[in-house]
Every structure is written in C-alpha cells, then in structure tokens.
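QA checklist item 7 of 12: single-chain prediction sanity check.
[x] sequence parsed
[x] length recorded as 478
[x] structure emitted
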Amino acid sequence: MTLKTARGTLALLELEDSAPDVLFARLPGATAPLWPDVRSGFMYAMQEHDFGSTPLEPAPTARLQAWLRLGRALLPSRWDARRVRSQRSAVFLVSGVTVHRNDGKLRNWLVSDFVDQFPGVSAVLQWGDVGSPEPAFPLTRTLDPMVTRAAGYARLSPRRVDPRSVHRLIREFAARLDERITGEQIDAIASSAVYSASISAHVESQFSRVLDRLSPRVAVMEDASYGGRAALVTIMKARGILIAEPQHGWIGPTHGAYNFGAAMHEPELFATLPDELLTFGEYWSEGLRHPARLIAIGKPHLEAMSSHAPSWHEREREVLLVSSVADPAEMTKFGLALRSALPKEWRIRFRPHPSERASVESRYGGMLRDPGIVLDEYSDVYESLAAARGVVGVASTVLFEALEMGCRVFVKESPYSEYYTGELFGPRVEDASDIRRIARMLIHNESWESRRAPEEIWKRRSAENFRLWMESRLHGLG
C-alpha cells in the first residue's frame, strides 16, 4: 500500500533516529526509561494537531467511588489475578474491551480463538473487570484490583517521585518533537507520568507475584507496542518470556505506536517492546518500522463469521455507517444526507466507536432522532456486517473487515484518507453527488456479486497458523 505518513509520526521517527541521550533517561528506581511510557501521550497529542478531533470528556471519579473501588480490591474475589495458583505456559494479557456476548457469556474476539487452541496451558489476564456476564474461558482473571491496590499502597507508603524531574524530561521531549504541542498537553502527559511513577513499584511487585505462580513461557499481550506498560514488558522479557502482540485494529505507516526510529532498536529500549507482532496479513506489515518480528497470522473470528454470512442479495436493505470519532457534527450531517438519498425501505444502522457508547446521545442525537437511522446494538461488529449490504466509514478497521464479510464498502473523504485507506476502496465520497452515487449503486446494482478480500489483508487458516506458531514458541523452535 502507498500511504502517507502523518507529520506527528514523522516527528517521532526523526527524534528516535537521532537517538539523543534523553530518550534513555530513567527516573530514580525505575525499571525502564521514561520515554516509552510517555510516547503514546505525545502520539495522541500530535494526532489532535494532524487530524483534529472532538475529544471525549473522561467520566469523573468521585472520591467515594474511589474508596469503594479500593475496598472491593482488598476483599477476596475469585476473579482476582492474585488467586491464580496453577502454572500456565501461555498467558494472554488483554484490555477486556474486545468482547462480545456468546451463549450468555463474554467471549474475547481478539484472543479467544487462540486460547481455544491451547486451553489446558493458557490463562487470560485482563485489565478490565471480570464477572458479569462471566467470561467464556474459565481461567480468566482481572488485573484491575492489582492496580487499585497499588494506588492505595502508594498513598500509604509513597514513592518519592520528583514532579519537577518528570516535567523537565517531558518538556525536553516536547521541544525536540513538534512546536505544535501545547503547554496544556505537556502538563497532561507529565501528570499521567508522575502518577504512573508513583505506583509503579507496587504494580510491578504484584505483577511479578502473578508471574511467579503462572511461570509462562509466552505472553500474548494486547497493546504491547504502546509503551504504557513498558516496565511490565521489561520484567517479562528479563525472565525469558517471549512477548507477542496480536494486532487488534488498523496499523500502517502513520500509526505512531507501530513505527519506531533507531533508538527503539537499541536493547535498553527494545526491552520495552514486544518481540513479535502477529498481524492479520502481510498487507498490514507494509511500510511499518517496528523492531519486532512481523508474522502474518490472520483473524480467526472474522474468518469464521465470514464463512457463515448470508449472501449480499439475501440481506436486508441496510447500510452500516461507522463512526470516525473525530467530527460528530459532520458525521451527523452525512448520515442524514445519505438517509434522504435512499428509499424509505432502506435503513441506516449507525455504529459508534466503543469509546463513544456512553455519550452517543449527546454526540449523535440529531442523527438518531431520524426514524430511518437506528443505533447499532450488536455487541459483535461482524453480526452488524453480516446484516448490511453497504458500509460507509472514514478510517476504521471495520472497512477492511467489511470486504471480507461481502459488503460494498464506501470511504468518506476526510483528513485521514491518504493516511489510512488510500485508493483501496475506489473513489472516495466527497459531496452530495457522491452520496447519490452510493445510493444508486446500492439500489440498482443487483448484478454485483460479493467477494472476499485478498489474502494479503486477511490471511486464511488463521487458527491453524496460530497453533503452529505457538507450538514452535513453546518448544523453543522460533
């Protein structure tokens, strides 16, 4: 693919290629240098300037809620990761967000098909809560109480973290990166770094105890390239545990979390990154600058769902509109215009980004009040895709998944287009005439036959690919 690289990502690469000593600086007593821990903060800050965004307001946490959460973390719970006692050769570290309901239980679409290949030697540890509904894989435990306890312990025996030292380093990083980074963004990154440093020793101590009990040889870790848990990656690699990250969404040459300069190839900083990156297909590796070994595996859940999806002509007259997060007002305007261009028997199903679910009414209420536009309630996006004839979006992995699910895919023109989709999906939708073109193609082009995406995008026999990969790693053949 020939995709452009965003200015912010180029700034990260240029800084790391110059490899100044400051990138290797550590706070006193820290397990890893500070740079990997704050790198994503700078990545997101520069994305705001590169593409613009309407940031989501974080939900406030009341003091009483914080104390109740700490109390729950101190009480015995069968879901707590510290209760794991059995040794497991393979541990899967996940966010807990990539889930969908299946037979009344929560199944993780990112790793469950992989875990199913090795149920007797696997454990799933997730950062989010566990318990309602119960996870489909029995040995799923949460690390959330561990972090809560660490914050509580830090209050009782605070580690001496000099905020001035943190702010000084953050300002030096910013000065070498991009003049667009604001003082407000610098302060936010520094505040997060100070908090992380204050609880890190307690988090690392408790996490090490979990590792002592599990004694894994392989860790499949979501988001391992983002750097926010750099110290934990460093601890695992120091124990000889191989770290592999499964691709969970779009990656390419403009994604700051998967493109690194020369400094990140140095042992001290590479120790904070995964050893291997397991991608959906060879397509996703093109143009990446990542020190990890890139291995195409595929996506088993998508492969299974696409094999059972009804044919295009058997589906309801429905279009799935996928949120871009960045501009709710523009998305609302577009959705209403597309609704007007389609006959009444057609329906638009709007799928917000997971981060928007809590605020969907305030962000998209104007669009959802139209009777011809409904909110997509499917927990599994592939159920949504299997029901749709057309999919319209901006820069979502769902567009690539829609190809595999047999949908007609249309990309709305945006500041993201040249960086995320290019010309893969044909002419982009720019104005009202293009909206009418979409409507005509969906209504009148009955001769169109759905087709699967190229194997370069979605590698086939993904479950078998993972099984062979894991067997080789567990037996030291990789």
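[x] summary fact logged: The two ends are 28 Å apart (CA to CA).
[ ] second reviewer sign-off
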